[in-house]
Amino acid sequence: MFCGRVPASPSISYAAAAAGAAILEGGGDIDFLIIGSTPMDNPAQVFGNPRPSARVLQKGDIINMELAAGYRGYTAQVGSPICIGPPTDRVKRLLGRDPRCGRVLK
Questions:
Q1: Using alpha carbons only, what angle is made at residue 82 by residues 44 and 8, rounded to the nearest 5 degrees?
Q2: How far apart are CA 104 and CA 88, in angstroms?
Q3: Whole-model pTM above 0.70?
Q4: Whole-angstrom distance, CA of residue 76 vs CA of residue 22
Q5: H-helix segments, 1-106
Q6: Residue 23 reports pLDDT greater than 50
């Protein structure tokens, strides 16, 4: 979804971008979009929020995202954590996979 540096923007901005560009402008519809962020070194969220906040993303955050969308009668769902900066050891263990397989934003 994002490449390179992440501008200091609230979670709600990213939710709007995902909904608008990826789905609605292509003729699809959103079943649900859940997104939220929390610091990786002091997490305070286990699941995203269906009503994204105005919290500004910072280096060291993890974004929890889940999206379900439909197009011409088909529905797909995806959920993926996105790290802003390198994942902490705790996050690497949580994901249970090689951290190079996840999305890491600088």
A1: 80
A2: 11
A3: no
A4: 13
A5: 11-17, 89-95
A6: yes
